[in-house]
Amino acid sequence: MKITTNSSRKELLRSVMNADMSEPEFISVLDEDLDLLRQFFSYYKCAIMEIETKFRVLNEQFSLDGESNPIEFIQSRMKSYGSIYRKISAKNIPPKLEAIEQEINDIAGVRVVCSFIQDIYRLADCFLSQDDIFLIERKDYIDSPKPNGYRSLHLIVAVPIFLENEKRMVKVEVQLRTIAMDFWASLEHKLRYKKDLPQEKLELLSGGLKECADESARWDDRMQEIKNMLEE
Ligand code: 0O2
Predict the structure, then answer these.
(1) CA of 180 to the centre of ligand 1 (A)
(2) Which of 76, 150, 173, 189 has CB 3.0 to 4.6 Å from 106, enough for a Cys bridge?
(3) Which mutation among 20, 44, 89, 106 tests ligand 1's pocket best, with the greatest number of atoms within 8 A of CB?
(4) Contact 112, 122 (CB under 8 A)
């Protein structure tokens, strides 16, 4: 499929609003070479491996110190073509790999799900103090949750990957959250797609979701207090 005109691009955008795009569709929108596109995404896959290893090493080291493992699990993902396309369209970013590399920070995403809130900040501090990690942006949605109740610590970092003949800096979005924050965000993410509901019902559901977010925040605080008491 070859898509070159503005109207056919708009048509494609409409069709991917709730779906993903295939590699040929994405290629035709970008008008880039397939090998180049695959190489571009492979850099991000390598960066994910680097970041995951760093957190696994920290988890192992914390457990050697006689503490329980701070990480429950790690999930990584490459942003889907449809999701990249929606973002560049919404932000008026030119559909070119160079612009996407510069403007989109979460093509590679690593989610680190921790047991307790304090683990998040301790892990983040250790991770950011490593001399090959460059912090680009820090968004603390735990300290300042989003209006809908979303909580997580987001770190946009650049990490070097070492290839055959070069070293490349690659951006990765790291999301650190507790199990409770992850539970809420996963369910809210599923419900977010059900937007074809009447306004009144939507408001009711948003209120319900916010209540659940506040409740889960209380659980996190309470669990942290109990842990602190046990350690006293
Ligand atoms: P997906 O499926 O993870 O790709 P910016 O990148 O700064 O231009 P953006 O993208 O709004 O702006 O950044 P932000 O707010 O830091 O959020 C990026 C990611 O955090 C989202 O990625 C989600 O994974 C997560 N997130 C942020 N807000 C919410 C929320 O309200 N609910 C849930 N469930 N997750 C959220 P994407 O691109 O939306 O999706």
Answers:
(1) 17
(2) 173
(3) 106
(4) no
